[in-house]
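Hi again,

Forgot to attach this to my earlier email, sorry! This is the prediction with protoporphyrin IX containing FE bound. I've pasted everything inline since the attachment limit keeps bouncing my files.
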Amino acid sequence: MASTIKSLTSFLFLISSSFLLHSSFHVTKAQAQSYPPLVEGLSWDFYDNSCPKLESIIRKQLKKVFKQNIGLAAGLLRLHFHDCFVRGCDGSVLLAGSASGPSEQDAPPNLTLRLEAFQTIDDLRRRVHKRCGRVVSCSDVTALAARDAVYLSGGPNYSVPLGRRDGLNFATRNETLSFLPPPTSNTSALITSLAKLNLDAYDLVALSGGHTIGIGHCGSFRNRLYPTQDPVMDKTFAKNLYGTCPTSNSNDTTVLDIRSPNRFDNKYYVDLMNRQGLFTSDQDLYTDRRTKGVVTSFAIDQQLFFERFAYSMVKMGQLSVLTGNQGEIRANCSIRNVDLFLSSVVEDGEKGLSQF
Ligand code: HEM
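Structure tokens for the complex follow:
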């Protein structure tokens, strides 16, 4: 009798533990982040052998950097976006202008990128190359820095596919302008603009959530204040903006997310529902019937926003990437290797000449 009870108990135990295992498997699967398919040449473990400490070098350094200046997190996130939308994520935005002409950096949307963000990318590159040699590209460093900017500000800790190579050319001013939509765009214009990059309306709403951190200049939302106030804007919010930008040519800055300006969360969408979005391109996402529901769902459910943001970032991070033997691994993020080499030859030559 005793042995029958014992075997019945162990049978029940087996059943219940297999049920538990089964249900926890489902919970884990539901919670697991889903990612878009990887493009050929990129992989999750690209530097596992050649630079296994890559991600920890970057994260450790950025933790220190953000302690000094949390605004840089926004600067780094925006830098990756501006890199990817123009000529793909190939570090072209990092290239300084040359004698042959102005660079992408000189095009209007890029003039408000933060100088310290460029400097931070090259500083990270230097630390990584010191440890591993010249094996990691500036475009991969930029993608990882953007992810850490998100995570260290309170956002999701998503994985970044790696293996990008750096481009040899930058885009012209007109090319840059044609891929980076202005903040005066309405949702229709944004949907059309992102469609050129195979990004859809869902990506648009998720990626716009990047505006949960950082700042904007008066010039970027002047159209909502002058010559007349945008009627969609919350009245008190508008009044405060007139305080920041008292004339139509003021050039001060204000935060993009009034509820939690330095925290990566879903409050940006709550702002939009309260008609407190800063740019036309933000606020119209809640006016347009095609995107309003997605804004609401992200405002209600931060976890859903985090998952969709990570998904769309990985999608954006794979736009027209160079892989394999294409492009190069720059030894200095703002200069092509050939120019770097030529300038060092000239410098050496000058040093040599000055000895005579
Ligand atoms: C959808 C179209 C987008 C438009 C029209 C747009 C436009 C802008 C503008 C005008 C600014 C402020 C520039 C200034 O006045 O200083 C800005 C800032 C910013 N944007 Fe966007 N953006 C868009 C998408 C994105 C995406 C996809 C991301 C990243 C996922 C992003 C991240 C940021 C961040 C973090 C800042 C703050 C930068 C800082 O504080 O230095 N934006 N954006």
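The pocket of protoporphyrin IX containing FE is lined by residues 71, 74-75, 77-78, 81, 112, 114, 181, 183, 185, 190, 207-208, 210-211, 213-217, 220, 256, 279, 281 (CB under 6 Å). The two ends are 107 Å apart (CA to CA).

That should be everything now.

G.
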